[in-house]
Amino acid sequence: MWFLVRVLLLLYVVGTEQYLLGRVGTWIPDSTAILLVFCGVKRSPKTAVKWILPLAVFRAFFHPGALLFHIWLLLVAWLVAHTTRRLFFAERWQLQFLLGVGLAWILSEAQGLLLADDGQDPLGRGMLAALVTGLVTPGLLFCFTAFESRVGPEPVFVGTGEETR
Amino acid sequence: MSREDTRWLRVSMLAALVLSPLAWRRPELSLPGERWLEFATAIAYRPFSVLRLVEAQAAAATMPVLAEPTERGSVERLEELLDAALRAGHPVVPATVLRSYGRGGGGNRDSLELELRVGREEAAQLSGRPVVFGTSLVGFVAAAEPGHGDGQRLRVELLNHRDRKAEPRRWIGVGESRVAPRLRKLELLVEAARPEAPHPLRVLHAAPRQLDTWSPDRSPYWVRTQESRVLHPDLPGGLLLGRLVDVGYLDEGFVLRRYIEPLWDPRSLVRVGILLPDSEDRRRPRRPGVSSRQVLSLRRLWVSPPGFSYRRYLLSGAGMHPGAAILSGDRCLGLVEWARGGLAVAEPLGVRGQVLSLMWMDPEQSRIHSLVVRGCGLGAHGAWFEILHPPEQSGDLTGGTLFSGVLGRYFPHGLRVGEVDARRGRRFHARTSGFDTWPSRVFHPAGEPDD
After folding, report:
1. Looking at the complex, does the CB of residue B14 fall below 8 Å from at least one CB of chain A?
2. 3-state secondary structure string, B102-160?
3. pLDDT tens digit sequence for A29-55
């Protein structure tokens, strides 16, 4: 149930981002990149895949490109974040900033390369949007983690058996 | 990392690897059930659309209305030019094309469905009659199928149609140089090529066999039919089959195979003529233009942000089909990408990857060209298109008006698409009718009872 509610929230985040892109400007941070950094840095591969699939469906509805293309794009971007986490200190805000910029740039360039004839991102995003995404990523990641620990289900402690001896 | 995490990581990497070629080559390729997922997304994003769906399903909302004519003059002129293009020097029955499709396998379009409805007897009479576009031979009226009832639509088998069970049709043709008509002519026996062949027709025999038809001072050779009492007694001579294409060691003067490339593309055919014997002369009344077509109303629920090279509209209404035209008056705004359960996503004409059949009419309204184009994305105040057919189209299209060609049963011809205002090589920019945000109420053509 909680997962469904959060998926619905994600849908409205992606929809609101679309609305703001047309009305406010193309520098609006990329919510997909932020979620992928969160999944890559803070979550296990199983959880990440669980989030990538609904996100790909939403992107196939809102953006050009079909579902398979979006699944591929999100998997590639998430693998970049996941591999980077294993090589560096994932808790450092500098790394999270760099990952935010990098993933937003990868998503924008890949969409421009594969979905547009002129090589421009169909959503009009450029380096400014990638930088803004990077700037907001560490703060949002902190908020997500805090939100999940307060609102989400209670974590179940599984002992090793050592403590009962 | 736990064993389960490692397994998920490996699966993800493998999936990314396997999907790479598909994502690079065909990013628009959708899965069979994908539209239902998008439908669920649309319902979740716009929950109030459920109420609209109920409204749309109600009988009052689905009553067809007549589209308001706005620019009857240019549409009528277009119809006149389409009829004039059918004059082949023989009596013809004009027929509007509803769609072109592939029946014979290989993915090639080898059949046309005509709008013309005939009774069982008339279908039997017309069966096998040649079908022309101008002086080009396009194909032959298909034999009525066993269950053919009265009022069924006629079907045309194009020249490249091959029936697996029957002997292929063969024609006798004569090739003549376009640049030097006094040069020796090439006599040919022609049949439909296999679907995997590079061109629709192949030459079985040519006499003289090694006649030079490829040198720059001789090429191109155009091939026309020749009368034959044995092979095709009903086919008049002089109908154009296409342009001769030679394959072989041409530099050394040796040709291995010859093919024929018709000058038309099945997607660009809007109106064709069924040739009648010279003793008969009957003209069927043309059906009324799109201005009096029955249409169904649609409501706009959501539109993607303006100013980008793509745009999507979420529409609700009854009876929508993928590929249907979205109209406002007699202007074509876009086409339906997918439709499920009363909801549809539509795109304006010209978004990247759309393949459309269009007709271009010059500013003086004296001639038309049939074009097959591919959308290259929305521009500053319209859309960019790339010309796919005809391959040698080089004239300046600027200033002309674009009308819709034939794109299936629910995408009628003769709808105003826009005006061409710039050209860059094989690409042109048009101020399209559907570029500005669509009104909250738009329409789509209503189907007929058996559609």
Report:
1. no
2. CCCCCCCCCEEEEEEEECHHHHHHHCCCEEEECCEEEEEECCCCCCCCCCEEEEEEECC
3. 999 999 999 988 888 888 889 999 999
Residue A155 is given by DSSP the state P
Of B265, B240, B271, the closest CA to residue B393 belongs to B265
Residues near A28 by beta carbon (within 8 Å), at least 6 away in sequence:
A17, A20, A21, A129, A132
Which among B11, B34, B41 is the nearest to A11, CB-wise?
Answer: B41
- Which residue, A56, A29, A10, A36, is CA-closest to A99? A36
Is residue A164 over pLDDT 70? no
Residues 304-363, chain B: which have Cβ within 8 Å of A? 304-310, 312, 345, 351-352
Distance of alpha carbon B350 from alpha carbon A127, whole angstroms? 27
- Of the residues B7, B22, B31, B45, the best mutation for testing chain A's interface (the one with the most A CB atoms within 10 Å of its CB) is B45
Please, which pLDDT band fits residue B288 given cuts at 50, 70 and 90?
A: very low
H-helix or E-strand containing B273?
A: strand B271-275
Both tokens assigned to B186: 């090439």
The structure tokens listed for B105 are 């396998």
Shortest CA distance from B33: residue in chain A: A67
Which amino acid would we find at residue B155? R
| Contact: B37, A60; criterion CB under 8 Å | yes
Any idea which residue has 């040069």 for tokens? B183
Q: Which amino acid is at B56?
A: A
CA angle B277, B282, B286 (to 5 degrees): 130
Give the max Cα distance, chain A: 68
ipTM: 0.83
The pair of structure tokens assigned to B404 is 């819709």
Residues with Cβ within 8 Å of B146's Cβ and at least 6 positions away in sequence, in order, are none
Q: What is the pTM of this model?
A: 0.80
